[in-house]
Amino acid sequence: MAILELRDLTKRFGETIAVDRFTLSVEKGEFVSLLGPSGCGKTTTLQMVAGFETPTSGSIALNGRDLSKVPARARGLGIVFQTYALFPHMTVEENVGFGLEMRKVPADERKRRIAETLDLVHLSHLSARYPRQMSGGQRQRVALARALVIEPELLLLDEPLSNLDAKLREEMQLELRRIQQEAGVTTLLVTHDQSEAMALSDRIAVMQGGRLIQEATPFEAYDRPTNGFVSSFLGKSNAIDAHLEAGGPGAAQLRCGDIRLDGPVSSQGPGAVLVSLRPERIEFCGEGEGIVSGTVVERVFLGDQWLFKVKTGLGELLVVRRNSGRREPDLGEAVHLSWQAEHLRILEAGSAA
Amino acid sequence: MIRNGAFAKLFSLVFAVFMLAPLVVVMGVAFTPEGFLEFPPSGISLRWFEAILDNPDFIDAAIVSLQLGVASATIATVICVPAALAIGGGRFAGRDALQALFLSPLTVPTVVLGIAFLRFLSMMGLNGTFGGLVFCHVVIIVPFVLRLVLASVTGLDPSIARAATSLGAGGWTVFWRITLPAIVPGVVGGWVLAFITSFDELTVTVFIVNPATTTLPVKLFSHITQTTDPLVASVSTVAILFTVALMLIVDRLYGLDRLLIGEGTR
């Protein structure tokens, strides 16, 4: 059953449309991410769900209950803010207990629930600290505990990891997922970080210009993007402008300049298309076996992998190779590239970001 | 770490001497056993401190000043906290005009203000009353309070109030439990600065007092226009010590406060 139902949600600020007929439903226990670049409307959507912004039109229903007349304070949502927004003059315990206090939960039950929640986020030993005496990661956990202790029907996370450094962010991703699953709380995350969205979510809703572009599992969105924007926003991707010669059923025939490519089965009709190819699906191969040949113009070592930029007849292609200890092509070296036709994605022309 | 050079140290020393010298002279003069102003004093005597007790006028004036300071600082703070929250909280029509209005007393010469208040209070029939004095002092000190409170409000993360709202707190609860405690340093600082400014105010006050509501600065001023005995020095010394004590208390409070909001070490 859907816990949260957004239907044709629209928000205008004067002439600009921040959110444009956005429809999404979130199932109980699910972790859904709103992903997109800044200004795509994801934060405004979250603000409307939280009750801090009023929708221009459309509806928000929580558990079948229409939220349009419910003020923010009565929605009972757990919210983790980007700045954590901890109460600076209260201890960790008082911060976490605030929501229970507002709900007039008796003192002994309050104490028990605070202890349980702090235990869940592994902060029991710091309950008497003030926020300023804690690290970013610890404050993040306090914010999470404060939102979870009220046992919200829905947890809203507003770029919760963006203020942490890279290493801590990776740790907190795993931690956040564990806590979310242990608490079993339905979660809506807003983020511009595609790796965060992919690592955490059951489902990703990619937004652009206030609109929902694609809604899919992380794997599906990455592997089968429905347009060039999703393909380039999620991970790295090579976008190649091409001409689809034979449409309809059967394998596609693509032409890019004077290079002919075999494509996967596509239902699209003939015409200009955008072909997307993930850099990790491209292989180096021997002379004569390749689909295109080219020269390595950039080579970056990333530890676990190598990143190449190869100048070919199709333009410059990114190639990612796992670091397997083998010798990899040098800068300026002539290379031959090949890939499986099924790894090409044929998308609408002009849909790249 | 940046270390101060010799020139910077010398500058600081000269500045400190420049600031403190008049106070040291006044306090030195206060202990003279003679009947005239002398420095350094030829001996140490509490004669002029005892003399304060024989001049109930000064004590009355000090009491008026204290009451005036407390009343006007409190009223100004009560006005400025909501004003600062509105001005610092976000954009709205007339926001800049409101802020300019609150700060405008700073830009008017105090002599002009004094004459204007005199005329205004006479028209209202409040001339020389304690209420009239409080009103004028509130106008004079509002800019000081507003600026300090505003500094605190601007430093406040707006998400904090939203977080409290999302946890079920209503408007008043958010104000009393979350916003006000978070801006307390600015509020306390603003109150104290306002109190000191009011306690010290002479230029405007001299226009609008009458004998029953004479404040300490006005009393001192009128005293030295008639005589030049060391009584003014001993009264000033008491006032200086009182101010120092007040600052020490605030420092304690503020330090305590910093602890309350989690700064510093435990």
From TrEMBL, chain A:
<dbReference type="GO" id="GO:0015697">
    <property type="term" value="P:quaternary ammonium group transport"/>
</dbReference>
<dbReference type="GO" id="GO:0043190">
    <property type="term" value="C:ATP-binding cassette (ABC) transporter complex"/>
</dbReference>
<dbReference type="InterPro" id="IPR003439">
    <property type="entry name" value="ABC_transporter-like_ATP-bd"/>
</dbReference>
<feature type="domain" description="ABC transporter">
    <location>
        <begin position="4"/>
        <end position="234"/>
    </location>
</feature>
<dbReference type="InterPro" id="IPR003593">
    <property type="entry name" value="AAA+_ATPase"/>
</dbReference>
<dbReference type="InterPro" id="IPR013611">
    <property type="entry name" value="Transp-assoc_OB_typ2"/>
</dbReference>
<keyword id="KW-0547">Nucleotide-binding</keyword>
<dbReference type="InterPro" id="IPR050093">
    <property type="entry name" value="ABC_SmlMolc_Importer"/>
</dbReference>
<dbReference type="Pfam" id="PF00005">
    <property type="entry name" value="ABC_tran"/>
</dbReference>
<dbReference type="InterPro" id="IPR027417">
    <property type="entry name" value="P-loop_NTPase"/>
</dbReference>
<protein>
    <submittedName>
        <fullName>ATP-binding cassette domain-containing protein</fullName>
    </submittedName>
</protein>
<dbReference type="GO" id="GO:0022857">
    <property type="term" value="F:transmembrane transporter activity"/>
</dbReference>
<dbReference type="InterPro" id="IPR017871">
    <property type="entry name" value="ABC_transporter-like_CS"/>
</dbReference>
<keyword id="KW-0813">Transport</keyword>
<comment type="similarity">
    <text>Belongs to the ABC transporter superfamily.</text>
</comment>
<dbReference type="GO" id="GO:0016887">
    <property type="term" value="F:ATP hydrolysis activity"/>
</dbReference>
<dbReference type="GO" id="GO:0005524">
    <property type="term" value="F:ATP binding"/>
</dbReference>
<keyword id="KW-0067">ATP-binding</keyword>
<dbReference type="InterPro" id="IPR008995">
    <property type="entry name" value="Mo/tungstate-bd_C_term_dom"/>
</dbReference>
<dbReference type="Pfam" id="PF08402">
    <property type="entry name" value="TOBE_2"/>
</dbReference>
From TrEMBL, chain B:
<feature type="transmembrane region" description="Helical">
    <location>
        <begin position="100"/>
        <end position="118"/>
    </location>
</feature>
<feature type="transmembrane region" description="Helical">
    <location>
        <begin position="174"/>
        <end position="196"/>
    </location>
</feature>
<keyword id="KW-1133">Transmembrane helix</keyword>
<keyword id="KW-0813">Transport</keyword>
<feature type="transmembrane region" description="Helical">
    <location>
        <begin position="231"/>
        <end position="250"/>
    </location>
</feature>
<keyword id="KW-0997">Cell inner membrane</keyword>
<dbReference type="InterPro" id="IPR035906">
    <property type="entry name" value="MetI-like_sf"/>
</dbReference>
<feature type="transmembrane region" description="Helical">
    <location>
        <begin position="130"/>
        <end position="153"/>
    </location>
</feature>
<dbReference type="GO" id="GO:0005886">
    <property type="term" value="C:plasma membrane"/>
</dbReference>
<comment type="similarity">
    <text>Belongs to the binding-protein-dependent transport system permease family.</text>
</comment>
<dbReference type="GO" id="GO:0055085">
    <property type="term" value="P:transmembrane transport"/>
</dbReference>
<feature type="domain" description="ABC transmembrane type-1">
    <location>
        <begin position="62"/>
        <end position="250"/>
    </location>
</feature>
<keyword id="KW-1003">Cell membrane</keyword>
<dbReference type="Pfam" id="PF00528">
    <property type="entry name" value="BPD_transp_1"/>
</dbReference>
<keyword id="KW-0472">Membrane</keyword>
<protein>
    <submittedName>
        <fullName>ABC transporter permease subunit</fullName>
    </submittedName>
</protein>
<keyword id="KW-0812">Transmembrane</keyword>
<feature type="transmembrane region" description="Helical">
    <location>
        <begin position="7"/>
        <end position="31"/>
    </location>
</feature>
<dbReference type="InterPro" id="IPR000515">
    <property type="entry name" value="MetI-like"/>
</dbReference>
<feature type="transmembrane region" description="Helical">
    <location>
        <begin position="63"/>
        <end position="88"/>
    </location>
</feature>
